[in-house]
Write a structure and sequence with these properties.
The protein is α/β, with parallel strands linked by helices and 422 residues long. It is built from 15 helices and 13 strands.
Length: 422
């Protein structure tokens, strides 16, 4: 039986979420938000299949877990497939078993690159149930990379003769056009419902082989009760940070990620004229970032605790995101919810998050522009709290987790109602 709740949703659903990991970056965060919130809905059963093991799995199924032999096989297969797996029979066996055993109505895919499933496995899943796929980057549209960065070959010639094989997921041998054609065969005209978090990615989809597919815009959301303003002075005392400094926060998901623009930040900080006015809070491995000794740096390591991250956003004056490529980053939303303005590169969906009242945008890769903005913060210190309040209001109004979950639930309900009519 399908029942209507007070919000008008069809809520009798069995959902399976699929993502590379359970804990991790933005894609993992969004998947986990949906998984945990939907689990609280009456008459909704949720399941989660992760490609790889991570901490705090909470009963999540894993394709490639801790078994040494299976992981050795996985590494071997990754190498012989040139980091571009067409099929993965272990994944197929696992997911089809879950679908049948739990009578899954909808499989909701998130990041499917990461060498735990194959491109054509999407076709196999579609034989058993409806498929929703949230795109967290451009991988579905290109011959191999998550973000092409100023390359249009994915929409002009199908990625013939790739000009940057090292972009993630990297290729040793150029088979980008072959992969592109396999993706086109697997993803187009299969009845998949695509969700994009940004207008920027929607525009790219409209210029790709997915232009005729069903697509829906749902922004990523932030838990505004978890990420919330706190008293800056107390937090700075707690973390031993000076009260009179302008604190800059930088928190890439990986210091090795070439998309995060770490060298842009390093070069900009060299150009800042009044270095003595600033302290830096760095979240991540200090081995992969080189900051001049004139700055006092507080290295926090990798932080997986949301409450601590909220503390770090709050004790900072601004959050820095000098990326070469982004979709609709959760880090920006978290900073805004914590009432901390953002300085970010003008790329991807960031321009839909930040405006003149909530932060500053600079041209992608332009260290001089970034340095100029940082230098001006000394004269704008009194305005930062006003901007922070506007950040908070914007996050509450447009980018709450509640709104995101509501939009996805409406999508699931629509699909279920259509199934009932078949």
């Amino acid at each position: 039986m399908f029942a209507q709740d007070k919000k008008g949703w069809t809520v009798s659903l069995n959902l399976l979420y699929v993502n590379t990991r359970y804990q991790g970056g933005g894609a993992e965060k969004v998947t986990r938000q949906l998984y945990e919130k939907m689990a609280k809905e009456e008459n909704v059963e949720v399941f989660y299949l992760a490609g790889r093991y991570s901490a705090k799995m909470n009963g999540v199924d894993v394709v490639y877990g801790k078994n040494i032999l299976i992981n050795v096989y996985n590494v071997f297969k990754r190498n012989i497939t040139n980091n571009a797996r067409i099929r993965d029979y272990l994944f197929r066996k696992k997911i089809i078993s879950i679908i049948k055993r739990n009578r899954i109505d909808i499989v909701h895919l998130h990041n499917i690159h990461g060498n735990y499933m194959g491109i054509m496995d999407v076709v196999e899943i579609r034989k058993y149930c409806k498929v929703v796929w949230t795109l967290h980057d451009m991988w579905a549209l290109t011959g191999h990379c998550a973000y092409p960065i100023q390359c249009d070959k994915w929409k002009t010639d199908g990625c013939k003769y790739c000009c940057n094989l090292k972009l993630y997921p990297k290729l040793r041998i150029d088979i980008a056009n072959y992969i592109y054609q396999i993706k086109r065969k697997a993803f187009a005209n299969r009845g998949i419902i695509f969700v994009v978090p940004s207008k920027w990615l929607m525009k790219n989809c409209e210029q790709s082989f997915l232009k005729e597919e069903t697509k829906l815009l749902i922004n990523n959301g932030v838990d505004i009760d978890l990420y919330t303003p706190k008293e800056k002075e107390k937090l700075r005392k707690k973390y031993k940070i000076l009260q009179d400094k302008i604190v800059l926060m930088f928190a890439p998901s990986s210091m090795k990620n070439p998309y995060k623009g770490i060298e842009v930040l390093e070069n900009a900080l060299k150009l800042v004229k009044r270095k003595e006015n600033y302290e830096l809070v760095i979240v991540g491995d200090r081995k992969h970032i080189n900051i001049e000794k004139e700055y006092i740096c507080h290295y926090m390591g990798y932080v997986n605790d949301d409450k601590k991250m909220n503390d770090l956003y709050n004790l900072s004056d601004v959050f820095l995101l000098p990326s070469y490529a982004e979709n609709f980053p959760c880090s920006v939303l978290e900073s805004m919810a914590a009432a901390t303005p953002v300085i970010a590169s003008r790329t991807g969906g960031i321009v839909e998050q930040i405006d003149d009242e909530t932060g500053w945008l600079f041209d992608m890769g332009d260290a001089k522009q970034l340095a100029y903005i940082i230098d001006r913060l000394v004269d704008k210190k009194d305005k930062l709290s006003v901007m922070g309040a506007k950040c908070r209001r914007k996050a509450e109004k447009y980018f709450s987790e509640e709104k995101m979950v509501h939009d996805y639930m409406n999508l699931y309900a629509k699909i279920s109602n259509e199934n009932q009519g078949e």
